[in-house]
Amino acid sequence: MTRSISINGQSQEVDVDDDMPMLWVLRDVCGLTGTKYGCGIAMCGACTIHVDGAARRSCVTPVQLIGGAQVRTVEALHESEVGRALQRAWRELEVPQCGYCQSGQLMSAAALLTTNTTPSDAEIDAVMAGNICRCGTYGRIRAGIKLAGSYLGKQQPSTTAAGSHG
Amino acid sequence: MSTVPNLSRRNFLVASLVGGSSLMIGFSLGSRAQAPSPPPTPNAFIKIDPQGRVTLFMPYVEMGQGAYTSQAQIVAEELEVDPAAMILEAAPADERLYASPLLGGQITGGSLSLRGAWLSMRSAGAAARMMLIEAAARKWQVRSGSCRAENGRVIHTASKRSLGYGELTQAAARLPVPQSPVLKNPKDFRVVGKPTPRVDTPEKINGQAKYGMDVRPEGVRYAIVSASPVFNGKVASIDDSAAMAVKGVRQIVRLDNAVAVVADNTWAARKGLNALKVTWDEGTNRGVSTADLVAAADAALERDGLIALNTGDVRKAEAAAANRYEQVFRLPMLAHAAMEPLNCTLHVTSERCEVWCGSQVVGRAQKAAAEGTGLPLDKVVVHNLFLGGGFGRRLEHDYVLQAARIAKQVQGPVKVIWTREEDMQHDYYRYHNHSRVTVGLDAAGRPVSWRHRVVGPNIMERFLPVYQKDGIDLDIVDCASGPYDIPNVFVDFSRNEPPKGLACGNWRGVGPTRNVFIVESVIDDLAHRAKQDPIEYRRSLLSKAPRARAALDLVAEKSNWSTPLAPGRGRGVAVFEGFGSHLALVAETHVSPSGVVRVERVVCAVDTGLVVNPDIVRAQIEGGITFGVSAALREHVTVANGRVQQANFDSYQVLRMHEAPQVEVHIVASNEAPGGVGEPGTSGAIAAVANAVFAATGKRVTTLPIQLGLSQEARA
User: What ipTM describes this predicted complex?
Assistant: First the structure.
């Protein structure tokens, strides 16, 4: 059926089955290929998107559950303060290798930093354990999250509220 | 391209004018020492256009190892341009033109991209620089020695006149190519050895980087493929009525050993595949299990192998030895599990075919597409995209051949996707590897003889025959005796192939990944039995390996080797020479009372010769170590009823963020030729972790993955 969903701030009409996961709506229907397929069962995190600011595995999120929620993908990461801070830190620390998992890593990290700009190692682990990187960039991802958090801390002394995208 | 053959036979440098205005320097990336005669054709190119833009056409692919950035740095150094302004283009598929100098094929692997290209790339950059300077000097009627090149311009030092490279391309192309270009003194390097931003990072953090999986030619359809779950099985029959009824499903393609559902989108294809009823002819492998495979490898341990190394007289030394040590090691099957599942997109017409994929072997991908479609090679165009991980899996071209056979039956472009489950159950696995090491010891506990029987498949016979000699896979016996002073060494290779249809191939670190673990476990055990410190024991045996010994000394210092650790913790060391590099690693582990191993820290000292990009070296070693820790602690593939039992990241567990060690990499300064860094971290990490587990528990690891106490039962 045809439905209207909000993706990266724009309303899009899509004609897809109710049960189609957002991963394939984004990639095959909308052409937003930054969101990656890695496992299809929410075990690797490569497909992470934001639904109303919260990190969701798009491979197991059927389009019918989206309703009027705001969907955001890595293509719009730079539109938020948190996203820009993460991209800057990722560049400065040269985090990516093959890069395939990094969209998901960044989206998970963005959701974390949006609620907490000074996460502890345990808080980083709790959120990021769901994102696999086979190239082994974990150490740089951890450092990148902390560095990005430090940029946000300087610009915004108090932690920002959840869902502050855009 | 109009080639003006200004050929230098020594460096195989060719200059030409392209499109009437761009200077093109073609060069050959060296040659293997044993090759009969180097090809007189260039296989890499530097182009300078009238705007002064520099494009580098290289035959190596970018799979996360930083090849593009490092190669740009090398050429930019000699050419005196800004590496960040250079454009990197992957060479098209052509085995004849773009064969790797060290591997003899258009292959990116073996940590060899830089090792094969380093001097040739410098020479080409230097030759171009000299020709541009000469062209400017002639224009100004001054001596070329009074001019210099800087940041894409030639400057006459005395008069401060200058010309951009773009203004000199036509004049330079008419000059002879220098026979022996003058290379810069490494002390004058301003780009090589300095951290330089990776050229591929910006697009990998905003979703714009295009991997094979991301290709969407106009009108593309999506195919999900499923090969026989029992290896070497065939399709007996299919009932496609339910599958064709799924909305969006367009076509079912049947191959000899696989089926594919073609649909308007991936989800419809997946649902269609779920609805497709396939009856498989499971063939002769239906009863095969891991126990059978392990038993076959054990049986091969009892067979004399082909002699790979025989120095001194091991038999005599063993007879005279004061003591004898023997240990058997068993390594499991492993999957690659690169984050991007295999995929290949093709558009086949009656005349030609276009292919989009991520491959470490672009030339072979082209041949596979030609074979699968029945088209002549020159009608097949391959577009190689970013690789979402290689680790050896994308050295194979099976998925391209299969996709071509499917695409041939489909109107219009089709993207053939392997699900994660398909990717994991139809890998070219690192196969079962067993070893027996027998050491003769003198009264002081020093080794006087080393006998190592290596059991595993001969991958190179199929994959790269030049790496095979007299029936011996030279890779699988690489690093089988270590860098130590042992006067009598005997290594033999007892070949053990998997059952037909169970594919095995190269896995990150290949031969050294198995052998460094084995050699370093034995040496560690010998140190323990001699009641000596593991580093001191190794040091005393490294007189012929000064670079490895220096790395060992550095890692001892950086890891605080001699400071005590709390109970339950242990430090383990490994040192080796491999891939043209010299490494020493110390791992620190914590082992819980129930036997759960956590690797907390890994410190690595690496001498990899002259370092082109220190941050890329660090990143590759960090990643390689993490890959090795993952294999040491978690990874194994098992077979039951002819089927691989692991299917996704729930059953094939890999290291995650919360389990990853803190990794420190210390680089030893060196002006020797660059070594490889993509793989050695993996080889070294497995060994250091196993020895750290011994230090923490007193239990010697002889079987991977490491299984202690309760965690063993949890896995069974």
Answer: 0.94
Mutate to test the interface with B, among A134, A137, A145 (most CBs of B within 10 A): A134
C-alpha to C-alpha distance for B426 and B406, rounded to whole angstroms: 17
Please tell me the predicted confidence (pLDDT) of residue B674.
87
H/E run at residue B135: helix B113-140
Report pTM: 0.92
Number of domains in chain B: 3
| CATH code for the domain in which residue B126 is found | 3.30.365.10
- Do B391 and B122 touch, CB atoms closer than 8 A? no
Give B96's contacts (C-beta < 8 A, 6+ positions apart).
B39, B41
Closest-CA distance, A57 to chain B, in angstroms, reads 15
Domain assignment of residue B239, given as a range: 212-283+342-417
Instruction: Look up the CATH number of domain A2-75.
Output: 3.10.20.30
What is the Cα Rg of chain B in Å? 27
User: Does domain A77-155 match CATH 1.10.10.10?
Assistant: no
Cis peptide bond N-terminal to B705, omega within 30: yes
Contact A136/B627, CB-based, under 8 Å? yes
**Model confidence pLDDT, tens digit, residues B425-478:** 999 999 999 999 999 999 999 999 999 999 999 999 999 888 899 999 999 999
Tens of pLDDT, residues A147-164: 999 999 875 544 444 333
The shortest C-alpha distance from B371 to chain A (Å) reads 29
Of B616, B630, B649, the CB nearest to A44: B649
Q: Residue B351's pLDDT is what? A: 96
